[in-house]
Specification:
With 439 residues, the chain is of the alpha/beta class. Helices cover 32% and strands 19% of the residues. It has helices at residues 54-63, 81-92, 113-122, 143-155, 167-179, 188-191, 194-211, 223-234, 245-249, 272-284, 299-303, 322-333, 338-352; strands at residues 2-4, 7-10, 29-32, 34-36, 44-45, 48-49, 66-74, 99-105, 127-131, 159-163, 214-217, 239-243, 289-290, 370-380, 399-409, 412-416, 419-420. A hairpin with a 2-residue loop joins strand 15 and strand 16. Helix 4 crosses helix 7 and helix 7 runs parallel beside helix 8 (223-234). It is globular.
Amino acid sequence: ILIENGKIKQVGTDLHQQGVEVFDAENMLIFPGIIDPHVQLEIKYGRFPMTDDFDTGTIAAAAGGVTTIIDFADQPKGVPVHQDLVHRRSLADGRVNVDYSLHMSITDLSVGAIDDIEGVISSGIPSFKLYMAYSRRDRMINEGQMDHVMEEVAKYNGIVGIHGENDNFVEYQIARLQKEGKTGVEYFTQARPAVGEVMAVQSAILLAEKNNCTLYVHHVSCAGTMEAIKAGRKRGVKIYAETCPAYLCLTEEEYLKPHGELFILNPALRSKEDNEALWQAIVNGDIDTVGTDHCSYTKAQKQENKNNFDGIPAGLPGIELLLPSMYTLAVHQRKLPLPKLMQLMTANPARIFGISSQKGLITPGKDGDIVIFNPRKKWKVNPENLKMNVDFTPFDGWEMQGAVEATYLRGMKIFAQGEFIGPRNQGKFVFGTPSGYHR
């Protein structure tokens, strides 16, 4: 693979170029740079700031072979969408170590959000995020507002993504459990059961169908949601589905163990049967992407309210372990064909979010984003040895099969021999364009 001026120039078996650095990747696997379509860096929800900022989080990304992240601009109440987008870009530009894009989260339609949609799309961000939960965090929008957003986004062939949990249902369950004194982590899944997710996703599918809008379902966690998505697709609704590594291999049993508070995330972990249903959806091609929903918290933050599930910051760190965990779980353990895994982690997210002119494949003309991966290396996850700014991960003590040897961003070697080797802060914003629905 010959990379020149940051772009892939040639791919072949007999390349001769004088005066260029050569990396001999014999006995290694070569992947396009991994795209994590669901990352949250430098964010504070309530009292708990996340520990990874754009700098540390993207160093961790590079260590895991992730060369493009898609983060979020979460509109605060009362702040115009275009203003928040400028602010979020200003935080990331000049501080990221891999390339990035954003989803625009709309939370407040009263400050001209509908009128801003066309401008957001024309500025290179074709996807929007709507929270169907979190009324107490001032982030939720209701179904009527969702209908209005979808109507407008559909005019420009954009995408509406959702956090699918029914807020009325979840909030009532939480209040009911609290009244009964059932606030321990072991009651967490009773507050946020799978049915609350399925209810919300069903509503979103109906509204996407009404508006002929492309729907992207973030972090699918259960069989019921997958069934709703497949039924919608059969009717012709344009739906993409994303899941996360945690929902493929961890279950609600974690909440019954010591330190179950570390595994609090929304939606909650589900059953073994749900794990299996999601794996079947991957094998069948019903799931389109895998993202981490990277949320970095410390043990101390997670344990401050460990006897009150509603006071524990929700989310798990994972950006650095996306590729090793998925290679281990999918290819090594389940014998998923490697091209199928790469489709989920490179070509699909690049196509869906309109950045495939630059990202997602190793072909001439694309950015020189390359991961050199050693499939034979075995190693145990120890948070002390990771670049993520955390002191735990959901995979602590797990043996991984395969490790990233080197990561190239647009031809620049940024990670090798277990260390980020720079140059620092050379990540760029990747301009996305609406790509139309195709799967």
